[in-house]
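Practice set, problem 2.
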Amino acid sequence: MFLTICLSLIIIFSVTLLLYSGVALIQNRKLFGSAPKDIQEALTDHEERFKGAHLIGWILAIISALLILFAIVYGAGDGIKNHFGFWDFFVRFLIMLTIYKLYDMICFDWFLLTKSNFYQHYFPETRNCKSYNHYGFNIKSQLLKLFIIFPL
């Protein structure tokens, strides 16, 4: 269980780094496909914040993706080494995905999107978008993933 929690923490750290890379460094509007529609429409592409920002962002994004892959592969490898059965694997990965999804819903969708002005800092053209005041713009899909898709 301790390893499962540690791997979950690696995943949420990596996803946070990935988000920061995309929003603060890469700043390409094509990366915001899951944002609310009004925010997507208001977004514009930005020049590099500083020389090399896009390159650093892409490097961090690749590192993030590799860390996520590492957590999944290591969790599977450890399970094989410890002779996990189907239900042991199921519970491990269900816990990992649930922790990730709860973090996503609380930290990204609620805190960063509606409370912190994080996105508005990097994309000031979206300041007046109504979605920043509407937590749960994608709550149906989030809950569907949490309670139906992930367990399946």
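Problem 2, part (b): a different protein.
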Amino acid sequence: GSSMATILHIDYMCNECGNCKSFCPYDSAPYKEKLTLFNTIDDLLNSENQGFTLIDENERTFMLRLEGEVKEISLLEENSLEKQMKNLLSTVYEDYSYLLMR
């Protein structure tokens, strides 16, 4: 199947300068509207962005905010996440672990 590229907003690399909003071809503000990877639980809780942070590396557990609801999800257990979100979390964990600063 085809896979669509996903823009992931990396919270700790962003100073919210607004350039992405100015130059976005889709009339969007990516730093506010795209799914955000947070470095810490506090960063996630102090934002309103939808996004996630890794909270347990061994258990592959993430804290997520989706549609205003904060929950913890382990990729090693059955969960109610949509397949696309599971794939995104797995890809970040497996292929982009350097983004998960600890």
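Answer key, part (b): The CA atoms of residues 39 and 101 lie 6 Å apart. The chain has four helices and five strands.
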